[in-house]
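Reopening: structure tokens for the zinc ion complex, inputs below.
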Amino acid sequence: MLYPPDRLYPPDRLYPPDRLDRTREAVAAAGLDALLLTPGSDLRYLTGYHAHALERLTCLVLPARGEATLIVPRLERPAAEASPAPGTGVTIVDHADGDDPYPLVRKALGGPARAVGLADRMWAAQVLALRDALPEARQRLAGEVLAPLRARKTPAEVAALREAGAAIDAVHAGMGRWLRAGRTEAEVGADIARAIRDAGHETVGFVIVASGPNGASPHHATSDRVIAAGDPVVVDIGGTMPSGYCSDSTRTYVVGTPPPDFAAYYEVLRAAQRAAVAAVRPGVTASSVDAAARSPIAGAGYGEAFLHRTGHGIGLDGHEEPYIVAGNALPLEPGMAFSVEPGIYLAGRHGARIEDIVVCVDGGVERLNTLSTELVEL
Ligand code: ZN
Ligand code: ZN
Ligand code: ZN
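Re-run output (same inputs, fresh job):
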């Protein structure tokens, strides 16, 4: 299913008919002759087709000038036809199992190509096969063209992200039912995964339940550690909605009464996260939002303990542009959606992170995760 039955996101809104034309213009402006997109978010962004990545070639050929062709294995044709792809103006061409599909790519290009943009996450096997099939074409990354387009969400995309944000907020709001002393992180994590699906996600992306000293490892998943009274617990969770758009939100909880040193730096973190969200508006740079989160943390003496960037863009991928990181001079624009997720990690003791997805809007910012960031004692 590509959109909910109530047609909250009909294909013509999530995949507007002018998207291919606008992309063609960007392809030409970048000096590329075509984009070649195998299954993944770039393909889904342009056509709505959520294709499976398999050894058999599925590839959208989008020439800068000319018709778009979606090459699919014959057994995938019904799925491709049932997707929003035909409505976006692509022609579907199939290949029989066992046939060499690469001559179809050359044919769909409609002429010699000097430079092609390949999906950033294309399999190496296909990259090399395309190099053999199109020896005259220089291979570049489709992301040069697509990342900036995908970074500026349409109102329908923001609505899909808002829905994802509300769904993951509902899971955090129920945390008291699962997160208790005496249970392992893995047990709590299994309950959370079920709740992520129950809240409307199609797939569970990740579940981090990092208790006590595990909280000092930003990408800890879950373990057999038994959660004890007084443990701070970092819970970072997300998934993908039927729309294709992702959720991602972190709250830090305490089971019982927090250790005194934890309570002190949690308030520093909370003020930093709030300051960074408040810094978001059109025209400010991504790096200045990172700095807004970093300076209060550094000022309180925890600068070394905030060991990652402040945030990442989010959309059809859980991590995409824009990256909220020092050195990124990209000015924010309305429609850009990204996380604001500073953390403080004290090795061997505990850690904390607070993460909201926000959208840059005219005149400021909209938070898509709207729960309080106050420390929740369970
Ligand atoms: Zn992360
Ligand atoms: Zn996260
Ligand atoms: Zn994140």
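The pocket of zinc ion (ligand 3) is lined by residues 248, 312, 339, 341, 355 (CB under 6 Å). The radius of gyration is 22 Å. Marking as resolved unless the reporter disagrees.
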